[in-house]
Amino acid sequence: MSNSGLSDSVKRKHLNQLATYRDEELRPHPALHSLFFELTINCNEHCLHCGSKCGDISEEAPLTTAEWKHILDDVKKDFGTDALRLCITGGEPLLNKDFFDIMGYAHSLGFDWGMTSNGTLITPEVAHKLAETGMRTISISVDGLKDTHDWFRQVPGSYERTMAGIRNLLNEKSFNHVQVTTVVHHRNIGELDEMYEIMKALGIRSWRVINIEPIGRAKDNPELMLTGDEYKYVLDFIKTHRFESPMEVTYGCSHFLPIEYEREVRKWYFLCNAGVYTASIMYNGNIGACLDIERRPELVEGNIRRDRFKDVWEKGFKIYRSDYRKCGPCKDCPDYKYCAGDSFHTWNFDKMEPNLCLRKLL
Question: Residue 4 CB: number of other CB atoms within 10 A?
Answer without folding.
Answer: 15
